[in-house]
Amino acid sequence: MSFEAKDYPISDILNKAVFDIPRNQRRYVWKRSSWQDLFEDTLFAIEEKKPHFVGSIVLKKGPKKDGLSYYTIIDGQQRITTITLFLVAIMKHFRENEMMDDFLGTVSYLQSKNNRNQDIVILNSEFHASISHIIRGMINIEDPKISITSFVDTHILSKSKDKNIGDAVKFFYFAIKEDLEAAKDIRERLRDIRAALLDMTAVKIESSSEEDSYTIFEILNARGQELASHELLKNYIMRYIQPVELRDEAKAKWEDMERTLGTSIDKFVRHYAIHRYGDIRDKYNSPYQAIQKNSRGKQIGDLYNDIKLKSEYYEKLIHPTTGNEGNCSLVEYEIFDFFRVKRFEQFRPILLSLIHQKEREVLDIQKYELALKYIYNFFVCYTVIGEEKSNKLEDVVFKYAKILEENYSDDLLQEFANNLKNKIPGDEWFLNAFKNIGWSKHFGLYTGERNKKRVHVVLEVIEKFMSQRNSVPEFSIEHMLPDAEDIKNSQIGNLIPLEENLNGNLGNKPLNEKWDVYDRSGFSSCRGVAKRYKGKKFNPDDRTEFLAKLMYNNILALNQFDFSNDQ
């Protein structure tokens, strides 16, 4: 038996190949949460200028025909299908923006041309026939102005079987459209999105026969291949779980977990390993190895149940929802959604431990929510305002995630908080760091998207405190005094959140003509500025110091944190 496993960019995997999804394969089941993960990972790859890894794809290689390689997808159809539908949505935008060269340049990733000059759609599903129909329809689209909804509805062959296929195309279309609204150059942004998607890498595993996937994973792992940890972990658990009769049920539940966590599945495995075993960096080659070495094939049922349970907690962190059918309380939602948007993942192992102790009723809800607020406050103070590197916190996270999971006590929670607190130099350091926050289009010290995002976070936190709301609507950043006149007008003390439509009407008006507009704003901090300074001399330096004290003493409340039992 021979196998071939190697890293490839998606652009290479989709080149001169045809993929078949047999009827006995699992249906296309990815939903909005998984589409959102893939889209956000694509945008993050653009920002980081680093390809995103999407895991492995297991293929049974068939005979080559007319210059094309034919494969049957054994594992990975959810990812291949989703990437294909994502490309369809990108092509629609190319067509709408009259980018015909880019439109035609994308065709080869959806349709291959064989040696007989015949066009062959690269992805064919026996169950979801609409996939190939949608691909052909987009390649041959005649009316570029047709709405995406009309296009999808006229190319879905079975609404009962393929609704999810159409919904995916529409999701990616509208997600791209929303992203483009903030782009300076729509055409370049579209090209960047396509490039980031096609540059994503996967381990392509080819087999000449449909061998048991467990054997494939074991052989590849033994050869040191870079397989995704969650796939190795799945194989390990399914191989050893007892009794054997439970494996089919366990596999189905595992696939539910994969579907729920989507592209965050490997992050979950890494954070789970830290949460259970602490600092795994020097002892183990991978999160999978840490889990495998610590369990050694024993009590796999307990391990499996714990992973499933913690995956449900992890879903709160990556897809927080609220309301009657939500998975979070209001406090959880406010904090977890903030961390999700800001991509702050450092404390997820700690959060898994705290959620678990809360669910076990070892940690009462009041102290649990106090702990969450403290972590949130610390993040804003240390990382956003202080601009300290989050990797300096690894020693605290690695140590206390494991301790709080295994031997929770209120004293240990207090000890964890104190260790975090010791990372913060003090209020003078905070004030100096706060004075460095600002944004401007005119002074180099404060220009750029990074400074703008930093200001946005701070204004958002202040607005939440002032309005006592869990979330803040979208806003633009208003310079009360023109930033072009003086560099100090770029600083945070001269900045407030304001609705886009109100901000657009202000132009270069002097401050005394802006107060009435500020009074009409829906933002409490904006109305508060008008109330505090209307008819008085306004000095941005004074307001900067006022906001710094407000955040440090009231919003961040770093000196009020105490988990003592007599609280």
Overview of this protein structure:
The protein is α/β, with parallel strands linked by helices and 567 residues long. The protein is 56% helix and 9% strand. The chain is built from 25 helices and ten strands. The chain has helices at residues 10-13, 32-48, 77-96, 100-106, 130-139, 148-155, 159-180, 186-199, 213-222, 229-240, 247-261, 265-277, 287-295, 300-318, 330-342, 348-359, 365-385, 394-406, 410-421, 427-435, 449-467, 500-504, 515-519, 524-533, 540-555, and strands at residues 3-9, 17-21, 53-61, 69-75, 111-113, 119-121, 123-125, 201-207, 476-479, 495-498. The strands form three sheets. The protein has a six-stranded mixed beta sheet with strand order 1-8-3-4-2-7. It has a two-stranded antiparallel ribbon with strand order 5-6. A two-stranded antiparallel sheet has the order 9-10. Helix 3 (77-96) runs parallel beside helix 5 and helix 3 (77-96) packs across helix 7 (159-180). It is globular and about 80 Å long.
